[in-house]
Amino acid sequence: MFAPPGEDLVNQWESEQARLRLQVIEEDTEDWQRSPDFSGLERVGGVDLSFIKGDDINACAQLVVLSYPDLEVLYEDSQMVTLTAPYIAGFLAFRETPFLLEALQRLERNQPTLLPQVVFVDGNGLFHYREFGLACHLGVLSGLPCVGVAKNLLQVQGVYKNEEHQSQIAALQKGGDSFPLTAASGKVLGKALRSSNKSSKPVYVSVGHKISVDTAVRLTHSCCRYRVPEPIRQADCLSREYLRTQFP
């Protein structure tokens, strides 16, 4: 178990987030992002960490790269890692980013032609207490376009899981429908997306880096066979499978 971090460390993390936040690009930077059918996009990545039950220190850091638009696995990397930071709401990136970044760097060194053109992150991007979640952190440090996709609503900056939010969810008729997650300041921090016709529970999509929110939502929907986009779903499945076989 980790001891709770001291005030100094939390302040250090906050200032690091503020410094890196200035580098986030919240618009489309790649030609494929501007194409109606994402022409030119061939590889989409997904990252995730899975834990051994009852152990919050040892985890499997997973990177997968899928073909686009077929969503077939081209590359997978499962690595056991030992976490060095505790989980604290709003600071997940300091716990997970180093290992996910290492996986991307390993791929770039060993098989650069398979490097993903965009990475889906199981977590939030701008939809965060300080507008700098895990997807932003990984995006800025890797230099790759990143999209944050969370399964649960982070109640932050005036966005609440209240009756109004529930009625907006109920109004999503079909896969691809979405509504904005608007902060008290009026800024749209992300969107709730009904990702498939089969799933009435939305996912929460936000910009990580080098992509606009509308493109991020459209791309997420195009990568969904089920509720969770395939790059994240495959990363989750493969990391759990790895733990099952290595630590039965």
From TrEMBL:
Entry-linked CDD domains: Endonuclease_V (cd06559)
Keywords: Cytoplasm, DNA-binding, Endonuclease, Hydrolase, Magnesium, Metal-binding, Nuclease, Nucleus, RNA-binding
Pfam families named in the record: Endonuclease_5
MF terms in GO: DNA binding; metal ion binding; RNA endonuclease activity producing 5'-phosphomonoesters, hydrolytic mechanism; single-stranded RNA binding
GO BP terms: DNA repair
Cofactors named for this entry: Mg(2+)
Entry's Gene Ontology cellular component terms: cytoplasmic stress granule; nucleolus
The keyword Magnesium appears for this protein: yes
InterPro entries for the chain: Endonuclease-V
Annotated compartments: Cytoplasm, Stress granule; Nucleus, Nucleolus
Subunit structure and binding partners: Monomer. Interacts with PABPC1; the interaction is RNA-dependent and stimulates ENDOV activity.
Record PANTHER family: ENDONUCLEASE V (PTHR28511:SF1)
Family listed: Belongs to the endonuclease V family.
Function: Endoribonuclease that specifically cleaves inosine-containing RNAs: cleaves RNA at the second phosphodiester bond 3' to inosine. Active against both single-stranded and double-stranded RNAs. Has strong preference for single-stranded RNAs (ssRNAs) toward double-stranded RNAs (dsRNAs). Cleaves mRNAs and tRNAs containing inosine. Also able to cleave structure-specific dsRNA substrates containing the specific sites 5'-IIUI-3' and 5'-UIUU-3'.
Protein name stated in the entry: Endonuclease V
Naturally occurring in which organism (per UniProt): Zoarces viviparus
